[in-house]
Design brief:
By secondary structure, the chain is α+β, with helices and mostly antiparallel strands. Helix content is 18%, strand content 29%. Pfam families: Esterase.
Length: 373
């Protein structure tokens, strides 16, 4: 998953009231507020109305402090030392809307920001910052009926252990014991795990809001670890899908169908994933077309018509990415699929790259298309 590079900038806060600071030719508004992902009671990091982020780290004995933004934490923003031993700095430019990972480099060592909550990404727990989005209402926490995200442990003979998954059941699941539901198996990307779609992606809130608005029929979402993180970034060719395919098809799906009130039929089962999870989705759906009927690749590649051997088994192919990725590839692939007779839909997230705002928006667009009669 591609990190985002931000040039270094040096800026001090000159007032707690509204004022304007200058950096180069850009006027930065001093209307900074704490990020919504801060630890309780912590004032930093902060975000202003222009989507700049400001960081403050207490490290009186340090010689250098830099905040590295993006998955993997490359590039970053240099902080400047104040007389009280704190270090402060502001990003050189506005950040993309949505969620971002970051870490703090102090004298060459990598640390998390004690002011921010942590999220699993880049094969470690990273600090997180939320840049308010103009369309954030669709994943906001609202006064609507909420579903349940439940941790399950399912037996896995192939890995000789019990494995973990998170299952979203929609509002009304427990109150209506005779109702059965379709299922979406939703995969995370490289460096992440089964917590990503709920924590970073807010998949449960997206679903709750869509259901409350009457825009979708309720369905279950299952999120499990894709066994991806032993692969080094850039080493995708070394990834073997077989162990995860066995866990998913032979162990997890039977367990879910036995434990939850699913509609255990191919036409009511979907698989999707972001980034490397999209690669997993493509590979498994091509290998086992009798298992899933709805396919979704979110910044995770494309299908060609020749990839799908039996068109009659596929009800939907959904392809998406950010406008800062490679949208032409997604659009062209969708056109080719449509011309070949597939129900194919593309979505491009405007102004975002390989990041969770792209995938939040993609899920929001995907969900109403799934399991339509």
């Amino acid at each position: 998953m591609k990190p985002y590079l931000f040039a270094s900038a040096l800026l001090f806060a000159i007032s707690t009231s509204l004022c304007v600071a200058q950096t180069g030719s850009t006027a930065i508004l001093e209307d900074f507020k704490p990020s919504t992902l801060n630890q309780p009671g912590q004032e930093y990091p902060q975000v202003n109305s222009q989507r700049y982020a400001r960081f403050r780290i207490i490290a009186p004995a340090a010689d250098s402090v830099r905040v590295s933004l993006g998955l993997g934490g490359r590039g970053g923003t240099k902080l400047a030392k104040a007389t009280d031993g704190s270090w402060m700095g502001t990003t050189a430019g506005p950040m993309d809307e949505g969620f971002h990972y970051y870490n703090v480099n102090i004298d060459g060592g990598k640390f998390n920001d004690p002011g921010a909550l942590n999220f699993y990404g880049s094969t470690r727990w990273e600090s997180g910052i939320e840049i308010p989005a103009h369309d954030q209402d669709f994943y906001a926490l609202k006064d609507v009926p909420h579903g349940n995200v439940q941790l399950i442990l399912f037996p896995s003979k192939s890995t000789n252990t019990s494995r973990r998954a998170f299952v979203y059941t929609p509002p009304g699941y427990f109150e209506n014991p005779k109702t059965r539901y379709p299922v979406l198996y939703l995969q995370h990307g490289w460096g992440e795990d089964e917590t990503a779609w709920s924590n970073q992606g807010r998949a449960n809130l997206i679903m709750d809001n869509l259901i409350a608005a009457g825009k979708i029929k309720p369905f279950i979402i299952v999120m499990t670890y894709g066994m991806t993180n032993d692969v080094k970034m850039g080493g995708l060719r070394n990834f073997d899908i077989k162990p995860f395919q066995t866990v998913l098809l032979d162990e997890l799906i039977p367990y879910v169908d036995k434990t939850f009130r699913t509609i255990a039929k191919q036409e009511k089962r979907a698989m999707g994933g972001l980034s490397m999870g999209g690669m997993e989705t493509k590979t498994i759906t091509m290998n086992m077309p009798e298992v899933f009927s709805h396919y979704a690749l979110l910044s995770g590649g494309t299908y060609a018509p020749a990839d799908i051997k039996d068109k009659s088994k596929v009800k939907l192919v959904f392809l998406s990415c950010g406008s800062k990725e490679r949208p032409d590839g997604v659009k062209n692939a969708t056109t080719a699929l449509k011309e070949a007779g597939f129900n194919a839909v593309s979505y491009i997230s405007e102004g975002t790259a390989h990041e969770f705002q792209t995938w939040r928006r993609s899920l929001y667009q995907l969900a109403p298309l799934l399991f339509k009669d």
